[in-house]
Give the backbone structure.
Amino acid sequence: MLVSCKDKTVFQRNQGFIFNTSYHISYTSAKDLHATIRQELEAFDASLSMFNPESTISRINRGDTLAIDLSGDPRVVHLLNEALKISQITEGAFDMTVAPLVDAWGFGTTQRKSPGSLNIDSLMQFVGYDKLRLVGFKLSKADARVKLDASAIAKGYACDIIAERLEQAGIEDYLVEIGGEIRMAGHNPKGLLWKVGIDKPLDDSLAVERELQAALALTGKGLATSGNYRNFYKFRDQKLAHTIDPRSGKPIQQNILSATVVASNALTADAYATAFMVMGLEKACALTDSLPGLEAYFIYSDSEGKVQTWISESLQGALTTF
C-alpha cells in the first residue's frame, strides 16, 4: 500500500530575552530559524539597545563630539529619520532627546535620585528634537550633552526588522512580539486573523494582575501599547510614571491611561503610542483622525474619574471577543 505524504504547515515558536525584555515569535516554517533571528536581534542590540554600553546609541550618548558619522550603522540612521519626522508631527510630544529627563526621574539607565532634589530647568537646555540635525549619515548635536533615548521606538523597529527577515525567507504567516510591541502578517495556527489583547490599565508594577479590556483581530499591521500602570513609583503620595513630557520635563499627568496604536509598521505604532500618552485624549484623537493609516484605542479617565474608551472608526471592525 503506497502512502503519499505532504508536509503540513508547521508553526515554529521562538522565545528569549533581549534589550532587557522578552520576545516571542511564531511563524510558519519547516525549519526552526531561531539562530538566524537571534543573530539579527543581537545585531540590533549592538545598534540601538539602551542597555548595551557598546551599542551605537550608547556611544552617541557617551561621546563628547558634536558630529557623529553613522555611515556604518544604517539602522540608527533610519530610526533617527523616522523619529525626527514623528517629533515634528506631534510637536515634540515624542522626542528622543528626553534621555536626561528619563534618567533624572529614575526610569533610565542611571540610579534613581530623590525627585525632590531634581533641577529640571538645568536639564531642559539639553532637551528638544530641534537640537538634532541629521543630514545623510551625519548626525549633529547642538550640544555634546544632548542624549538620546530609543526606548519608545526601538522595540517596535526591532519587530519590523525581524518581520522583514521572515518575509525574505518566504514566510507569510507570523507574529513577532518584543517587549509588548507587535508586528504580524497572514494568519494564526487556526487559520484566523491574529488576536491581540489590550490590558486593563490596572496599577501593577509587577505585572501579576492582568485583565483584558478588549481584543483586536488583525493582520498585516504593527501594534504598540503605552501606559503608566506598570512602570511607576510613588513619591509623597503622588504617582510618578515613566512617560516624561519632553516639553515640561515632568512625568505626564494626562487623562489617557492606556494608548494602543495600530499602524502599517511597529516602529510607527510604538512612537505614536508614547506621543499620545503625552498629548492627552483630545489632541491624540484629533491627530489619529488626521493621519491616514493610523488607528488607536484609548482607555481614559473622564471628568468624573470613570474609565472610558475611545476607538478610531476604522478600527472598530477589528474588535473581537477574548
